[in-house]
Design goal:
Length: 232
Amino acid sequence: MHIPDGVLDPGTLVVAGAMSTGALVWSARELRRGHQRWGVALGGAGAVLVFHLADVPFYGPYTAHVIGGTLLAIALGPWLAMLTMAAVLALEALAWGDGGIAALGVNVLVMGVVGVLAGYSAYRGVLALAARRRPPDAAAGWRAIVAAAVGAWVSVMASALTLVAVSAAGGASGIVLSQVLPHHAAWGVLEAVATGTALAIGLAWGRHGARRRGRVRGPVAAASKDAPAMAP
């Protein structure tokens, strides 16, 4: 979904770049509230970068790959996820020429802003709907996985619609909505599977770690409880 240089007119590049910059500044402002998981963000950036290396020709001047924005937003929150995605896209454009440097603002808008916000909003919406229909129980993990998959698919479709709108505004030829959406709808299924699988692995790993910590702390806590009090 990377847009190279020379496809869109300069005015569109400037407007899209300003919109992306405004969104990132707002994200940085929101990050001042609370403690941020910068280590997780760095690891997430590396994982997304690996995903983006599997870049395949899609149609016309465009390429496609698993985006990973929804998974980042679930792990980090939407604000830090937007900044992380922007950093990844900037590195790809500067180091590998994947997406144009002049078109970086457009690519950030399509994948790092719209994709992240749409995917995370859909994820939270599905979770809220599921919580209203059924109270939290042992199946909460599965509901989160399904919500993540839905959010990932929505993120691809939202990014595709933004791509079409920006391409039409920028004078790009050969971008037909009736052709773009079926391609991205199918690609979104791959994004949904990858996101749901990654979250399932993360949840399973977290439960395994919690059980191990419980086994370690259990005997220690019992020993502390049974031990006689020490005289001062």
